[in-house]
Amino acid sequence: MQFQLQVDGHSPDLAAIEFAIAALDPAILLDLDPFGRTIRISTSLTDTELLACLRLAGAPAAPEQLTRLPSQCCGGCGG
To answer: What does the pLDDT look like over 21-75, one tens digit per residue?
Structure first.
């Protein structure tokens, strides 16, 4: 699943977020938009699991800041 996390104020530590999520999903991918306002996260975690990992990483994240995006599957992996 792909999510977008809206960032308020300063950008959270992406390495800490990646580390917290990778404990449950080693295939995590994340990046920050050029303006530093949105973190894009691709993971197999549920919304609840992702929010827990974000909080563990010190990224203040409320459910209303997290948006699950529709599937963007290209079919290339055969899944």
So the answer is: 999 999 999 999 888 889 999 999 999 999 999 999 988 788 999 999 987 666 6
Per domain, the residue ranges of the chain are 2-69
pTM of the predicted model, to two decimals? Answer: 0.83
- As a dihedral over the C-alpha atoms of residue 57, residue 2, residue 77, residue 20, rounded to 10 degrees, the angle is 10
- DSSP-based helix, strand, coil % in the chain, nearest 5: 30, 25, 50
Q: The domain 2-69: what is its CATH number?
A: 3.30.70.100
